[in-house]
Amino acid sequence: PTVDVSKLRAIGFGAALNPAARLLQESVAALAPPGTDPARLRITALQAWSLVHGLAVLILGGQIPHDPALI
Predict the structure, then answer these.
(1) Which of 1, 20, 42, 44 has the fewest CB atoms within 10 Å, measured from its CB?
(2) Res. 68 pLDDT band, cuts 50 70 90
(3) Are residues 3 and 41 in contact, defined by beta-carbon separation less than 8 angstroms?
(4) In this predicted structure, what is the pLDDT of residue 17?
(5) For residue range 8-30, what is the model confidence (pLDDT) as tens digits?
(6) CA-CA distance, 26 to 17, in Å (whole number)?
(7) For all residues of the chain together, what is the average pLDDT?
(8) Cα–Cα distances in Å, from 39 out to 18, 52, 59, 70?
(9) At CA 25, angle to CA 31 and CA 32, rounded to 5?
(10) φ/ψ of residue 4, rounded to 5
């Protein structure tokens, strides 16, 4: 399916608006093969951010233990 990456900016994932997003996008780009579609890079960065955010919420909510081995 096609993803409208312009919507990522609307939810605050625009790198210019969010220094953490910029760092994550730059890190994803550094690890990606040369020539990777920029839209794919933004989607991958959003997926990584979502995964980390979800884990943090579960730990903070006490739903899973705070265990460095999970990170």
Answers:
(1) 1
(2) confident
(3) no
(4) 61
(5) 565 556 656 678 878 888 899 99
(6) 14
(7) 82
(8) 17, 20, 30, 29
(9) 20
(10) -85, 95
